[in-house]
């Protein structure tokens, strides 16, 4: 538009000058080497205007040709990209439908023309793994990693696949790297929780729990349960590696709040009993039971291998005297009487325990106690109750 306007301005100026100097055309001489060109001023002006118009026209034609070429190229490129998107969408649907081979074929056919090839290769890796072809899976993941801004998506996909295939070491290595680079990523934290549990990385799981809670991936109840589970696992690992002395040293270093958990006290004393530190186990159980009763701890008392069981019996007799409805204490005391062959006392306490709650082990003990007293018929009835209880579970 500006060029056309410019031509009109020049043409108008020429007409104006022509009218002003009509009959006075002037003379122009152009000499180049041994050649000369002669013309009037009016001819020169007309020639310049014509040359400019031809130049502008040539520029227009060239631009039109280039624009048409680019438009044609863009048309085919967009057409290919749309087709690639359609194939990718169809491939994702086939993946969800379980047609893994069809999904792989669809998403890889036009992946090079997709505006996000990363998506195509990640879907293809899932399809290949679903077919059990880990070689192809790794190939597609490698292609995906060559795309821009693909690191997180590729490594997270790799970790999820490793967890699914129970390749825990691979999953842990990948996820720990991602955690260092993306500490707040909820998918990474969730996968690490599962991986640490399966690998028995208890201290790492304990350290992870506050982050899981902060990210609202677990609630307070689940955090407490996971922490107790991890602490128990850690106690077992330390006991197997360092023995009872190392176990006790570790226990004493724990926070007081942690050591007040009766469940953890049970885990701790079980490991002490397993390493023949029964006296230390009894001391821990006794001090805990003074503060709060717990059936699990009462059930551990008969497992103690003590040179003198009298202190345990005295403790339990004092408990059942104050708490006759304490089934755990009644059962534990009855077992000590059973070992001492005090059959009537054992029978009485087993019956009191069973009156509070059914228990297969107590039924079995009671049946044996009755047999020892030649009460065969009663023993048979008790055995039938035990069988009924087992069948109902």
TrEMBL record:
Q: Which UniProt keywords apply?
A: Cell inner membrane, Cell membrane, Membrane, Porphyrin biosynthesis, TPR repeat, Transmembrane, Transmembrane helix
Cleaved signal peptide residues? none
Where is the major localization of this protein? membrane
Every copy of the HemY N-terminal domain together lies at: 26-132
Q: How does it sit in the membrane?
A: Multi-pass membrane protein
Stored InterPro entries: Heme_biosyn_assoc_TPR_pro (IPR005254), HemY_N (IPR010817), TPR-like_helical_dom_sf (IPR011990), TPR_rpt (IPR019734)
The places in or outside the cell where this protein is found are: Cell inner membrane
Has the keyword Iron been applied to this entry?
no
GO CC term (a single one): plasma membrane
Transmembrane stretches, start-end: 39-58
- Biological or metabolic pathway of the protein: Porphyrin-containing compound metabolism; protoheme biosynthesis
Query: Gene3D superfamilies of this UniProt entry?
Result: Tetratricopeptide repeat domain
Name where the TPR repeats lie: 327-360
Kindly state a single biological-process term from the GO annotations of this entry. heme metabolic process
Question: What does it do?
Answer: Involved in a late step of protoheme IX synthesis.
Name listed for the protein in its UniProt record: HemY protein
Q: Which organism is it from?
A: Vibrio hangzhouensis
* Organism lineage: Bacteria, Pseudomonadati, Pseudomonadota, Gammaproteobacteria, Vibrionales
């Amino acid at each position: 538009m500006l060029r056309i306007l410019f031509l009109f301005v020049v043409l108008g100026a020429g007409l104006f000058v022509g009218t002003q100097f009509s009959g006075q055309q002037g003379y122009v001489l152009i000499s180049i080497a041994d050649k000369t060109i002669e013309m009037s001023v009016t001819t020169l002006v007309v020639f310049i205007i014509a040359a400019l118009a031809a130049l502008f026209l040539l520029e227009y034609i060239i631009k039109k040709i280039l624009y048409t070429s680019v438009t044609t190229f863009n048309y085919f490129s967009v057409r290919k990209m749309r087709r690639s998107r359609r194939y990718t969408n169809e491939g994702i649907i086939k993946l969800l439908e379980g047609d893994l081979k069809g999904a792989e074929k669809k998403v890889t056919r036009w992946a090079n023309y997709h505006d996000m090839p990363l998506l195509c290769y990640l879907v293809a890796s899932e399809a290949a793994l679903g077919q059990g072809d880990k070689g192809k899976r790794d190939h597609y993941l490698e292609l995906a990693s060559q795309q821009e801004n693909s690191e997180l998506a590729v490594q997270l996909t790799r970790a999820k696949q490793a967890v699914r295939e129970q390749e825990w070491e691979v999953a842990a290595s990948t996820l720990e790297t991602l955690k260092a680079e993306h500490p707040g990523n909820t998918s990474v934290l969730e996968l690490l929780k599962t991986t640490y549990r399966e690998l028995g990385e208890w201290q790492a799981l304990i350290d992870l729990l506050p982050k899981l809670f902060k990210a609202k991936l677990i609630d307070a109840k689940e955090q407490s349960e996971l922490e107790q589970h991890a602490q128990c696992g850690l106690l077992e690992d330390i006991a197997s590696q360092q023995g009872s002395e190392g176990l006790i040293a570790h226990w004493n270093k724990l926070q007081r709040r942690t050591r007040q958990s009766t469940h953890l006290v049970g885990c701790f004393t079980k490991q002490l009993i397993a390493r023949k530190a029964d006296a230390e186990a009894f001391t821990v159980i006794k001090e805990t039971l003074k503060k709060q009763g717990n059936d699990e701890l009462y059930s551990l008392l008969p497992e103690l291998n003590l040179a003198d069981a009298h202190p345990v019996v005295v403790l339990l007799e004092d408990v059942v005297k104050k708490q006759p409805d304490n089934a755990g204490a009644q059962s534990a005391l009855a077992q000590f009487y059973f070992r001492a062959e005090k059959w009537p006392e054992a029978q009485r306490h087993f019956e009191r325990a069973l009156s509070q709650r059914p228990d297969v082990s107590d039924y079995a003990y009671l049946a044996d106690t009755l047999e020892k007293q030649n009460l065969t018929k009663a023993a048979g009835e008790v055995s039938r109750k035990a069988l009924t209880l087992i069948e109902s579970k």
